[in-house]
Write a structure and sequence with these properties.
Order of helices and strands: EEEEEEE
Shape: globular
Number of strands: 7
Distance between the termini: 27 Å
Number of helices: 0
Strand content: over 45%
Strand order of the largest sheet: 2-3-4-7-6-5
Helix content: under 10%
Low-confidence stretches: none
Number of domains: 1
Radius of gyration: 13 Å
Largest sheet: 6 strands, antiparallel, barrel
Length: about 90
Amino acid sequence: MSERRKFERKPFTNTINFAVSVLDIANTKVLNLVAKGIDISEAGIGIKTNYPLEPGHVLRLDNSTAHKVGLVVWSVKTYNNGTYMVGIKFV
């Protein structure tokens, strides 16, 4: 399988605080959550989190990266401990 990424990923193990807005019935809630970084590139970041992020979620990232906003492009639940591996594209 060939590599599809345009930018090289580097290890990134910082704790990341982020906020995501979710629609709950008729209200929008802003959730402040924490994730663990996995890797990072110029275009995006991989994280591990306990919250079930979905493609299309827009995240406001804290100052642990130079980027402030990211778009979830994929999310996979890991079966060993119920966490989610998430790919985020910087916007």
